[in-house]
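Thread: "does anyone have the structure for this chain?"

Original post by V.I.:
We have the sequence but no experimental structure in hand. Need at least a predicted one for the grant figures.
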Amino acid sequence: MAKVKTWVWIVAGVVGLGILGIVAMAAVGLWFVRSHVDVRQTTVTAASSDFDAVRARFASQKPLIELDDHGEFIRANTDRPVSAVRPESLNVMAFDPNDDKVVRMDLPFWLLRLKQGGTRFSMGGDDVDLAKLRLTVEDLERFGPTLILDHKDHNGARVLVWSQ
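Reply from O.Q.:
Generated one for you, tokens below.
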């Protein structure tokens, strides 16, 4: 019986470690999404109540970004003081009355800082692009915990974005 060459064992070991690495990365990615994104069925009334509860925390603030009914940029309300408190997460809550679903997502700021070339993330088929909203992660950090966006379109869909 012929002896298996050493290089064959090395190649098999490297391939095996590569496969294990890919499986581990997929598991970590799945864990991250499951722990930071929550999609639930809801009613219009319950969703409105959830939005109002979050919005009440920022009752005295205008949203940092204002959009028109079509989601186009109107103005940035950057006339607010610089905060000494750094936000820890960017939170998004979106409601689609056609699906009766509310999506909640919280992204740690350390993850936003890692992103190069603008920060864009997808939520239920819609992209949220900070560059399109004329914001950078540094801008959001400078303002500290704040209301970033409170947008409702003519169909009843609503998006609320805040940092905390």
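V.I.: this helps a lot. Helices lie at 6-36, 44-56, 109-114, 137-143.
O.Q.: and The two ends are 67 Å apart (CA to CA).
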